[in-house]
Amino acid sequence: MEIDDETINSTGEEEDKKKPIVAILVGAPGSGKSTFCDHVMRVSTRPWVRVCQDTIGNGKPGTKAQCLALSNTSLKEGKSILIDRCNLDKEQRSDFINLKNSHKVDIHAIVLDLPAKLCISRSVKRTGHEGNLQGGKAAAVVNRMLQKKESPKINEGFTRITFCYNENDVQSAMDMYGSLSSVNTLPGGCFGEKKTDSKVQVGIMKFLKRVDPPSKVTSDKTDKTDKTDETTPGPSNDGEEEKVPFENGIPTLGFPSISTADFQFNIEKASEIIVEKVEEFVNKIGNGRLVLVDLSHGSKILSLVKSKAAKKNIDPKKFFTFVGDITKLQSQGRLNCNVIANAANWRLKPGGGGVNAAIFDAAGPDLDTATKKQAGSLSPGTSITVPLPSTSPLFSKEGVTHVIHVLGPNMNPKRPNCLKDDYQKGCKVLRDAYTSLFENFASIVTIQEKISDSDGDVGTERNKKFKGFTEESESKKVNKEWGSWAQALYKIAMHPEKHGNGVIEILDDVVVLNDVYPKAQKHVLVVARAEGVDRLSDVREEHLPILRTMHAVGMKWAETFLKENESLIFRLGYHSEPSMRQLHLHVISQDFDSKHLKNKKHWNSFNSPFFRDSVDVMQEVSEDGKPKLNDDEKFMSMELRCNRCRSAHPNIPRLKSHIAICKSPFPDHLLQNGRLLHASTKL
DNA sequence: GTTCTAGAAC
DNA sequence: GTTCTAGAAC
User: Fold this and answer.
1) C-alpha to C-alpha distance for A630 and A190, rounded to whole angstroms
2) From the CA of A471, how many Å to the C1' of B6?
3) Nucleotide in closest CA–C1' contact with A651
4) What is the pLDDT of residues A14-69, one digit of tens each?
């Protein structure tokens, strides 16, 4: 991030230039707030006062009132202030934001949303080493605070919000604030907010998900004439609403009109197809939304689409048009689109003018490299999703995490594959192009939803909406070959008498055995004996009887174990993508007390959406003909969270010492539909 | 699936 | 120095 000289305080008033800044740090203990303040105060030539609640009482912790008092006196002296306290929820921040009522100031938020494990380990360090207990205490404090966090929003009254998710982000933000003199300031708006880099920190998904639908943006029902200055980006219907910030954190696809510019597709027909496809998809993209973007207010396509969408009563919160540069939607238009579509050429090459040149240009060489990894060319009517590396400026400045390249039909005789006037073919290709684009966007949304659901609450209802999408993209996966070590279960299923290692029951349809490396006190596998069902993705409606048998046998064994030990709790389910060949049901006690549970993958394979409860699998197969799979690798690298209280832990040993003592009740979704089996439920 | 181990993190 | 993770080999 850097300061853009052109955007530095363009109002020109001398007084304005000396406006102090109230910089509110937002972050858990250990997120680096004090380090941030120290650095800024050391290098900045602007006069800063640090308002730190931890030390405000003569070096000891003080009160919020003391912080406010110091803030007031400092502002009166014309000094800028750094509010160094957690400020994680809206209420905690509001008193400091209200300082703008009595002082002429800009209110900034600097969000230090670093991985929970990092904050915890830093807190542990700070509180001293007094054995493991101290670590547990620090984790508990950080976890408790993180439960409360609410992402700051512009509409709380901030002039500017800077989000930091890793040390690099923090360094950039420190440099930025450190470079401020008493006269320059930073442009307003929301910067760096991201929703999708879940591999870095899955925990933020829940944080960002709690957003309201956009309130003010509507696709106008009346045909107003647009008189707004063409250089000002904003919702295309009304200039007055430009000041209203868009809600960020909602998965949003910004897309240009395909084929109408360079490829000379008829605008009337194109607008009809856009609206038709939007209508078809608008309810298939979860809480996501679609935004048609065009650079100029005079654009015919926008007004045609707008009026057609209004006639069809398409929800204006889910679909609207927007005037602005598709490569600067966040920085100039304050509209965060985590996904943008590119009107690509068939060679997927940069340059050539128009949207394609602009996007490749703004994204830097990273996009070209990432694109080449995916494909070398594109057929008309198709699209391809390219995850944007975080090093790309489009990612860091605009919050774009994916670019979807789309190729529409060509009606321009000067370009290759021209359809001339064959609109029958042309319309079909254009429809295909939008279908492919919106499907690709839907898969991105689905993956994000699944990850955020996994972070505590499960949105079964929402998942149901995605029926059809994920499966399609996932089924494209080529079946992996099984390694020699992965055949053990298969061999046992086929010849249990020969390979009887650990086998405890042999029936016609299933074999039951103790897991050779149990991940809990009790851990058995119920293996299907039929040939041809290697894994969950092979399961279809015809396998419902075997699923039911496996479930019944698994339940019987769980009950047997519960008679021996009433304190156990069992869960029955399948791995979305098993390592061992031959469909097998895990019957596993929820203590996870085992020396064989050694790494993140072991934990997450039983404690993330990757683990599919047997009851849900049976229901899905009977309703949809096949089970849902959550086989994204991301689930394996998720933060380590307690299966009961959902607290985060920095590593496996810490997690294990926590779960050994955690007595919290299980999350709600596990308590429903018989997903968990207790002694009391059966006695 | 596990084991082994380099090297990152503490 | 020790602990812990993650990738390769099996």
Assistant:
1) 32
2) 39
3) C4
4) 555 688 999 999 998 888 998 999 999 999 999 999 999 988 988 888 888 999 99
Domains A5-113+149-192 and A479-638 in one fold: no
Please identify which of the residues A108, A297, A523, A584 carries the catalytic annotation.
Answer: A584
Q: Is A584 a catalytic residue?
A: yes
pLDDT tens digits for A589-638? 999 999 999 999 999 999 999 999 999 999 999 999 999 999 988 899 88
CATH of domain A234-465: 3.40.220
Question: Quick check: A348 and A376 in contact, CB under 8 A?
Answer: yes
Nucleotides of B under 7 A from a protein CB: 1-3, 9-10
C1' nearest to CA of A601: which nucleotide? Answer: C6
Query: Is any atom of nucleic acid chain B found less than 7 Å from the CB of residue A114?
Result: no
Q: Residue A653 CA to nucleotide B4 C1', Å? A: 20
Question: A610-648 b/e with 16+ CB inside 10 Å = b?
Answer: bbbbbebbbebbeeeebbbbbbbebbbebbbbbbbbbbb
Q: Topology of A479-638 in CATH? A: HIT family, subunit A (3.30.428)
Domain covering A5-113+149-192 assigned CATH 3.30.300.30 in the classification: no
> Which residues from 502-521 of A have any strand B atom under 7 Å from their CB?
516-517
A104: left (phi over 0), alpha (psi -120 to 50) or beta: beta
Residue ranges of the domains in chain A?
5-113+149-192, 234-465, 479-638
Give the nucleotide at minimum CA-to-C1' distance from A653.
C4
Identify the residue whose tokens are 């057929």: A379
